[in-house]
Amino acid sequence: MTTPQPTDAQAPPPYYERHIFFCLNERKNGEDSCVPRGAQAGFDRCKARVKAAGLAGPGRVRVNKAGCLDRCAGGPVAVVYPEAVWYTFVDDSDIDEIVESHLKNGQVVERLVLPPDVGR
Ligand code: FES
After folding, report:
1. What average pLDDT does the structure give for the chain?
2. In the chain, at which end, N or C, are there fewer CB atoms within 10 A of the end residue's CB?
3. What spacing in Å lies between the alpha carbon of 102 and ligand 1's midpoint?
4. Of the residues 21, 22, 23, which should be mutated to test ligand 1's pocket, given the most ligand atoms within 8 Å of the CB?
5. What percent of the chain has pLDDT over 90?
6. Closest ligand 1 atom to the C-alpha of 68?
7. Nearest to 70 by CA among 43, 32, 39, 37
8. CATH architecture designation of domain 18-112
9. pTM for the model
């Protein structure tokens, strides 16, 4: 016997429209990690821009810290759900584009998408 699964029509609306997680892991042994490559600055910038744009809050956008997401070789990395789009970024303008294009308008920033074969 199988348990009935809710259909999309029965699923409650998502608590957040979009959720972005930034890896803020740092390794001190010389292995790849995101904090030495600017992850904290990217997180701080994203948080500030989402708030300033009035996008933060239930039904809208949430910016969260995460531990290692196991894609360290491409760091710094962040992932946006529900689309499950992985990004890497270099500077404030990259973060601003992710906020404006993807988090606000749902358009993926193709130039910043992490290649699919990048792992740890
Ligand atoms: S240290 Fe950032 S993904 Fe692993």
Report:
1. 93
2. N
3. 22
4. 23
5. 88
6. 4
7. 32
8. 3-Layer(aba) Sandwich (3.40)
9. 0.91
Over residues 25-73, the pLDDT tens digits come to 999 998 999 999 999 999 999 999 999 999 999 999 999 999 999 999 9
In the block, tokens 């029965």 appear at 10
- Answer yes or no: is the C-beta of 75 below 6 A from any ligand 1 atom: yes
HSE value, Cβ hemisphere, 13 Å, CA-based, for 40: 4
- For residue 92 the two structure tokens come to 């404030």
Q: What is the DSSP code (8-state) at residue 27?
A: -
| Ligand 1 and 108: CB distance under 6 A | no
DSSP per residue, 35-91: GGGTHHHHHHHHHHHHHHTT-BSTTSEEEEEES--S-GGG-SEEEEETTTEEEE--S
